Amino acid sequence: MTVPTMNSKLQFRFAKFAVLVAIVLALSGHGSPLKAQTVAAIVNGEAITQFDIDQRIKLTMLTTHKAISRKEALDDLINDKVKIKEGRKYGLDMSASDVDGAFANMASRMRLTPEQLTKTLENSGVRPATLKSRIKADMTWGNLVRGRFQSSFVVAEKDLKDVGDDKSGAESFEYLVRPIVLLVPRGSGQATIDSRRKEAELLRSRIQSCDEAQELFRTMRDAAIRDQLTKTSADLPPNLRSILDKTPIGHLTPPEVTKQGVEMVALCSRKPTKADTPAKREAREKIYSQRYEAKSKAYLQDARKGAMIEMR
Fold first, then answer.
1. What is the DSSP string of 25-79?
2. Which one of 85, 86, 274, 303 has the minimum C-beta count within 10 Å?
3. Residues 143, 14: one domain?
4. Could you read off the pLDDT of 223-233 as tens digits, one per residue?
């Protein structure tokens, strides 16, 4: 830690005093257990309590299924304080609506509503504010690191010269596709689903071009054909890539039952492209991630050195 000047030492003492007074007032007003609110550390004038540590331990167990020590939890919380402080230094301060939006997106990825995610957390003894604090620190830090050092993460072609070398004969293709769905009402029985699947197979055997597919499905009841999409090999999961490679141009992929109904994809074109192969994309993302993590770690260490951290 850098040695503060006499003036900064005095400011730090006043900040500590203000934090302690605020905690005492909060305890007296809400009847919280004194032990739970004991201050474990003060970071740039902001307190981290034993309760905060308890919450971080529970959150980590819930999200990673791994137990961490109190020391590790405290270190994580200190890092979060430092990250947010460093972000503010460069004008980055995530608003409550930004954090709430990220919280809602997280819930959506888990197929939950924000209210359901809140209840899941509370049932595990974790306050939603605990997760939101972590989200805020991660968002702030990610935006800050990428904003300041983005050019150092760029992966040039020369960095990928030994990747794959197309030894397996892998090529990258650009696919022009149109998703199609035969709608099946929610709660329909297996007989209805099987009937729609048979109908899809019949229609599939008739289609010979994307124009035919568009003309047919745009006039059908309980069916929809989506706008054209362009995807490369690296954009698609291996199973769908394999299916599209085997599908003749102008034809439909085999029907698949999804939540929306019975879905197929019309393959309008497939042509070679110089875009990354899946192996190259994976290697590029791996190198980018390694560079980001290294820079993030070094930057955080520097930011901590400049922070006023007092362990209690």
1. HHHHHH---TTTT-EEEEETTEEEEHHHHHHHHHHHHHHHS----HHHHHHHHHH
2. 274
3. yes
4. 999 999 999 98
